[in-house]
Each structure stands twice: as structure tokens, then as C-alpha cells.
Amino acid sequence: QLQLVESGGGLVQPGGSLSLSCAASGFTQDYYTIGWFRQAPGKEREGVSLISLVDGSTYYAESVEGRFTISRDNAKNTVYLQMNNLKPEDTAVYYCAAGLGGWVVDWYNSWGQGTQVTVSS
Predict the structure, then answer these.
(1) Torsions phi, psi for 74 (to 5 deg)
(2) CB distance 36 to 22 below 8 Å
(3) Do residues 46 and 108 touch, judged by C-beta distance below 8 A?
(4) Among residues 73, 79, 18, which one has the least CA distance to residue 50?
(5) Tell me: the pLDDT tens digits for 28-81?
(6) Distance from C-alpha of 20 to C-alpha of 51, rounded to nearest angstrom
(7) Residue 83: Cβ-neighbour burial (10 angstroms; 0-12, 13-18, 19+)
(8) How many other C-beta atoms lie within 10 A of the C-beta of residue 55?
(9) Fewer CB within 10 Å, N or C, the chain?
(10) Which of 3, 57, 53 is nearest to 27 (CA)?
(11) At residue 108, what are phi and psi to the nearest 5 degrees?
């Protein structure tokens, strides 16, 4: 059973930066992609960024393209999400998840507990 633990959330002012981490323990061989998703109050969970565990390809939602960067450290079994130029609309609980890939939430079957990101002045 794969376990994912997120860290790094917090409160930041608009224009600021945060870095999230997703530490994986267990077997990652059964999964193809690690994704970062977020869910704001009253909204559906949405994909933010994906990274392939096969070839390292990265993908971004249009809303975060150019501001967020996803990366991985295979030695540490950790995936990172560097978030720059944060906006109030980035406020949400951020989750990392492991699954087959793509933007569909249901294609991911291992989820972390989530970490709160609040962007406010």
C-alpha cells in the first residue's frame, strides 16, 4: 500500500511563494504518475500538475502554467511543487495522489491527507 504525506502549506501574501512536498512510502512500481490536485471550498477537486514516474514528463493546468513547477527526487521518493507568484484564487487544500495519469480524479487511487494553502494579504 502506497502512502503519501504532503507538507509545506501555509499562509502567504499574494505574489509570494510556497514549496509543497509529497513523500511516498511503499511500492511506487504500480503507479505511473504523481499528481498535485487542489480543492477550494465549494468547488470540485481539480488537477494542478502531474509528473510521470516513467519518463519524468511534466504537465500543468493552464491556470498555473508558468508559475508552478513540479519536480521529483527519486532517491528520496519525493515529489515537489514549487509555487511562485501565488494568487488568492490559488487558495485551496492541496493533495498529492498516485495513479495511472491524466487529469481525471478517479484515475488516482492513493491520496495524501492534504495541506492547506492560503493566499491572502
Answers:
(1) -65, -35
(2) yes
(3) no
(4) 79
(5) 677 889 999 999 999 999 999 999 999 999 999 999 999 999 999 989 999 999
(6) 14
(7) buried
(8) 7
(9) N
(10) 3
(11) -115, 125
